[in-house]
Amino acid sequence: MKLRFLPLMVSAALVAPVASSALASNAGQVLEPARADVPASVAVWKDDKAKMDAFISELIGKMTLQEKIGQLDLQSGFRNNTGPFVNEDYENQIKRGQVGAVFNSYGADFARSLQQMAVEETRLGVPLMIAHDIIHGHKTIFPQSLGEVASWDPELVKLGAKIAAREATADGIMWTFAPMADLVRDPRWGRVSEAVGEDTYLTSVMSVARVQGFQGDDLSKHDTMLATAKHFVGYGLAQGGRDYHTTDVSEHELWTTQMPQFKAMVDAGVATFMTSFNDLNGTPATGSKFLLTDVLRDKWGFEGFVVTDYTAVNELVPHGYARDDKHAAEIAFNAGADMDMVGRTYINYLEELIEEGKVDESKIDHSVRLILEMKWRLGLFEDPYRYFDMARAEKEILSDDNKALARDAARRSMVLLKNDNNALPLNQDELRTIALIGPLADSKRDMIGNWAGAGPAHLDHVITLKQGLEERLEGKVKVNVAKGATYAFLREEGSPFAHDRFNYVARQTRDDAALQKQIDEAVKLAKQSDVIVLAIGEQEAFSGEAASRTDLQLPGNQIELMKALKPLGKPMVAVIQSGRPNDLRWESQNLDAILHAWYPGTSGGHAIADVLFGDYNPSGKLPMTFPYNVGQVPVFYNHKSTGRPHDEWTQKVRSQEYTTRYNDAPNSPLYAFGHGLSYSDFQYGEITLSSDTLTLDGELTVSVEITNTGKHAGEEVVQLYTRQMVGSITRPVQELKGFDKVHFDAGETKTVSFTLTADDLAFYRADMSWGSEPGDFQVMVGTASDNVQRLSFKLID
Ligand code: NOJ
């Protein structure tokens, strides 16, 4: 028998209107008077581990095996569709006590109705946890995750998560599947938009900031939520950049680039972990005891619970790692995956597996305990409806304050990639007409990007670029708008890819006459204007999950449009919206200025206008390399040297022939990690070191004097890198070790200093021990990874 139903014998004592209160009173709690923002009993209980343990032991003691297994099940509702399989019976399953948590079920009223099913219609009334992918906002949408990180401002990133948590927790959601901390080096992979970029240090800092933003310092507060460290681990290394594909990585590389950010989140107290879909070195991560138990629990001491990704247990079968779903459940559960997302394998098979002696019932109790602990910490046993707060939702969601914060986050995230002859900022007094041209000129949906929470249902709050410019210019400058081109994938009639199976992504059959007509209209408008502002990029659905590309150029006929506009000789300024690094070769050679705006969120149009007109001076820096072309991928700043390093700039051509290089493209990317311009001009003095040696217990200070010689006040992200010249294993040519975002008034000079210790130089050595190695090092300070000054020092015993 696969499905067991709950016994009909229900104890009257437990069927109170809020059954969990009955459980609470069973635990003998005395409630204290309420505080303003934290229900009293939660405030009293939250740190009392002994009381929590006693309560949960008592509850587990009352649970049948089926009820326990029910707690290990996570089901998806229909409010969003984030996976290939939908369970139409989940409401009945909740009523049968077979579901411990739900997601894709947002909306306070709807989520409350699900909670009522769990609390009022099941025997023990154990409340549900309600989850959702709150990635860069719930309804007020902040910049796409990769973009937000381009601010290089952990406090801002933390604030984005905090506001998202405030909104989501008023709307019935208490658990988010974020942050995603997969290291990303392949922009073909659509999920780079959800990540933190190509550097492990930056990923660690920003992921911890997000955990702190979501969880705050106290999970029992009504406006904090459980965070999830995902995807554990290696998902970002998908071969060919194709989503869900296999990953194969050396032990050193795994521990050096993929693991530290997850360890950092454990240390920061992240509540849950999500397994990744991928096969990692022959073992699918969801079935890996090594990852989920040996590393996560035993080595790192993680105390929360582990949820699988969407049907990832069932997927052990097509991976070729399990014979069938039952075998898959045995492998995943024994590996250490506490909760099964969507796939129903635990519900269907764990009981049989226990009867057969393949799974230990005490292990089930342990997983149930971890899940109930989180329900306790959230305060759900005290009040299962505390996150359905219509009054707070009304007041806080999409509030003016939140939109203002989102606007600030968006403008701080934008990266000025190019600005020839100070084409930007635009001067309103010198303009009569602007031609705003491109498929993203007036698109609300694209403004908020992918994984935009409940944002798509609230597009009336979103400010497009057209709106932003018009509001900024108040009719003093005319804005002429034309689409000019499409960003749809254009396919020729009869091409093998000529189908529309995937609804989200815009595709259309090429119709030359219609496309030319659109271009002609745009050219006509541009002729009547003083400047062309291009609103170009990718449709939001071109990145995100299941959104890999093999070509990184801007899609559709956008380049054709720009080629038609170019001969007009007007200044051409591009605002690019995209969730990934694109191949911008043509744009970089032909446009006067390029502002990368990512998907800037609800207030995006205002934020872009702020930057275009110099009301905000851009300060973003790239968290991920922009390749020269797709053939260079993966291309990242912290690569190894090779035995035949190539010097692109040498004149000695002969000596460079047999070096590591391409015949048809440079090695260096179009825009390097850390690159980003400003309207200010930051002049770096010579860097100095406090000593040319560093002892194992000592400190070394590296300093530089920086002057803002420009006319505008602005912020500069000063970056610190090191290189270990010789190691017991080879070391990267550069590694980020620190950064500081510093404000300068026009004309202001400041000294910026960083302190290095031997700990900063530690790594997994040849024998896999963690530590530093005495020897020669370089320290580098600069404005981008490819624009640094270097000095040498020695690390000595
Ligand atoms: C699959 C994605 O990989 C994961 O990141 C997400 O949280 C789940 N779907 C739930 O939507």
UniProtKB/TrEMBL annotation:
<feature type="signal peptide">
    <location>
        <begin position="1"/>
        <end position="24"/>
    </location>
</feature>
<protein>
    <recommendedName>
        <fullName>beta-glucosidase</fullName>
        <ecNumber>3.2.1.21</ecNumber>
    </recommendedName>
</protein>
<dbReference type="InterPro" id="IPR036881">
    <property type="entry name" value="Glyco_hydro_3_C_sf"/>
</dbReference>
<keyword id="KW-0378">Hydrolase</keyword>
<comment type="similarity">
    <text>Belongs to the glycosyl hydrolase 3 family.</text>
</comment>
<dbReference type="Pfam" id="PF01915">
    <property type="entry name" value="Glyco_hydro_3_C"/>
</dbReference>
<keyword id="KW-0732">Signal</keyword>
<dbReference type="InterPro" id="IPR036962">
    <property type="entry name" value="Glyco_hydro_3_N_sf"/>
</dbReference>
<dbReference type="InterPro" id="IPR017853">
    <property type="entry name" value="GH"/>
</dbReference>
<keyword id="KW-0326">Glycosidase</keyword>
<feature type="domain" description="Fibronectin type III-like">
    <location>
        <begin position="716"/>
        <end position="785"/>
    </location>
</feature>
<dbReference type="InterPro" id="IPR002772">
    <property type="entry name" value="Glyco_hydro_3_C"/>
</dbReference>
<dbReference type="Pfam" id="PF00933">
    <property type="entry name" value="Glyco_hydro_3"/>
</dbReference>
<dbReference type="InterPro" id="IPR001764">
    <property type="entry name" value="Glyco_hydro_3_N"/>
</dbReference>
<dbReference type="InterPro" id="IPR013783">
    <property type="entry name" value="Ig-like_fold"/>
</dbReference>
<dbReference type="InterPro" id="IPR051915">
    <property type="entry name" value="Cellulose_Degrad_GH3"/>
</dbReference>
<dbReference type="InterPro" id="IPR026891">
    <property type="entry name" value="Fn3-like"/>
</dbReference>
<dbReference type="InterPro" id="IPR019800">
    <property type="entry name" value="Glyco_hydro_3_AS"/>
</dbReference>
<dbReference type="Pfam" id="PF14310">
    <property type="entry name" value="Fn3-like"/>
</dbReference>
